[in-house]
Write a structure and sequence with these properties.
alpha/beta; Rossmann fold; seven-stranded parallel β-sheet; 9 helices; globular
């Protein structure tokens, strides 16, 4: 007995063929020109116009870091705040290191606790090696271990001429940006179990230095080298080490270290014609921290808005 060969009408297939694909909306983030503005370092995100987006409303967690403990330096604002919010919503408890921006840090802490996670706030100047050791010790007392160390805090200042750079400014930039990474990692690694991750914040300046940020750019090149070497040194202990190289990001460092007219056009020369918002960096830090990235070590992840690293 034969079956009918009449073709079956498949309206769903026809619909798929005739309807245009849906478009994913691009983020509507602000682009320059911005209002001219300045702050005294370290600055506050509250005083920026427009205020940065750290993912306060947009980041939705999926348990990718459930049960982890993360120590984040520079966690009160900027990239550090965005990473802290994302990590908390992914299930991590947070130790939040910052210089003295108490109001910003308390706001970040409230968001972490709103996500149902614990938060330890740790004010102090990590240019001092003793403070680095104290921060690690306090984190261990509170949480018992460290699974993720995010070395993110940074200092920068612009100078047009080499002779304009004060000796103490050069030394402070190195003390905050690279020396502190050494002291924090040295104090922490003995308490980080296999599978842990260290994530350092480098910069596009690591490969393409801005001459007016000579001290900052030099430290960022050192961070990339430090990351590559430390990844090899710690591989046998099961600790991964990577870095993120951001392009221009809208954080308090910008009005705190640049002339107001440069702030007004910050990020304009990016291929996307704008600076990143801090939340746009958070995904890279989550990816590098989560256990499924177990073979990623010694890498530099560029988040530059299309501008290539050299």
């Amino acid at each position: 007995m034969s079956r009918s060969a009449t073709p079956r009408s498949d309206h769903s297939t026809e619909k798929m063929r005739t309807e245009p694909p849906s478009e994913r909306a691009l983020p509507d983030y602000p682009a320059p020109p911005f209002p001219e503005q300045s702050q005294k370092l370290p600055g506050s995100f509250r005083d920026m116009t427009p205020q940065p987006d750290h993912g306060e409303e947009s980041w939705k967690g999926h348990g990718r870091l459930k049960g982890s403990v993360a120590l984040i330096t520079g966690g009160d604002s900027g990239i550090g705040r965005a990473v802290a919010i994302a990590y908390a919503r992914e299930g991590a408890d947070i130790a939040l290191s910052y210089l003295d921006e108490t109001e910003d840090a308390q706001d970040t802490k409230a968001l972490i606790e709103d996500a149902g996670r614990r938060c330890l706030t740790l004010p102090g100047d990590i240019a001092d090696p003793g403070t680095c050791r104290d921060i690690v010790a306090a984190t261990l007392r509170a949480f018992g271990r460290i699974d993720i160390l995010v070395n993110n805090a940074a200092h920068q200042q612009t100078f047009d001429q080499l002779e304009d750079i004060p000796d103490d400014e050069w030394r402070r930039t190195f003390a905050v940006n690279i020396d502190a990474m050494f002291h924090l990692a040295k104090a922490a690694v003995g308490h980080m179990p296999p599978g842990s991750a260290i994530i350092n914040t480098a910069s596009i300046n690591s490969d393409d230095p801005n001459p007016t940020l000579l001290a900052y750019a030099t430290t960022k090149g050192a961070i990339q080298n430090f990351t590559a070497g430390l990844a090899q040194m710690l591989a046998g202990r099961g600790i991964r080490v990577n870095c993120v190289a951001p392009g221009p990001v809208w954080t308090p460092l910008i009005p705190g270290s640049m002339a107001p007219e440069k702030v007004a056009n910050f990020g304009k020369n990016s291929p996307l014609k704008r600076p990143a918002q801090p939340v746009e960096l958070a995904g890279a830090y989550v990816m590098l921290a989560e256990p499924t990235s177990s073979y990623v070590s010694g890498a530099t992840v560029a988040v530059t808005g299309g501008r290539p690293l050299i």
